[in-house]
Write a structure and sequence with these properties.
It is built from four helices and five strands; from the N terminus they run H-H-E-H-H-E-E-E-E. It has 140 residues and is an alpha+beta fold. It has one domain. It is globular and about 45 Å long.
Length: 140
């Protein structure tokens, strides 16, 4: 793990723990009504999580997390981040923050769900709620 990636990870964990907790709570609310431990409805996961994050006020806070992450690398943003693509995307795994900075593309993922691929051809993948949020940071 490179120094900027470590710096981003440390900064997010130290300064934005309440946002991570909020994402976790929203993901729990999405998975709670499932009658099994997983679902194959990726749209329900992504759309439901997007809606829950918006209702909790977290979508508007995530661009600030991205700006802080970029600051932790010692770089500057080329444009002000917004709570929509390309800065923020809510996928079936969780929210993803992206910024292009001088060393490359910074990607911060808050994984709340895991994709479980089916070995049988033609079968949809399933989405399983992770135990908490897995923070992944990459500089590509």
């Amino acid at each position: 793990m490179s120094h900027p990636v470590r710096a981003v990870r440390r900064r997010i964990l130290a300064e934005h723990a309440s946002i991570i907790d909020g994402i976790d709570a929203c993901a729990d609310a999405i998975a709670d009504p499932w009658d099994t431990s997983r679902t194959t409805d990726s749209d329900a996961v992504a759309d439901g999580l997007h809606r829950a994050l918006e209702e909790a006020g977290l979508l508007r806070l995530l661009p600030g997390v991205l700006a802080d992450a970029v600051d932790a690398t010692g770089s500057q943003l080329r444009a002000r981040p917004v709570p929509e693509p390309p800065s923020l995307v809510v996928t079936s795994r969780g929210p993803v923050l992206r910024a292009t900075i001088d060393p490359g593309r910074l990607v911060v993922r808050f994984d709340a769900f895991d994709v479980v691929r089916n070995a049988e051809p033609g079968q949809k993948p399933a989405y399983r709620r992770l135990d908490g949020i897995e923070l992944a940071v990459a500089l590509e």
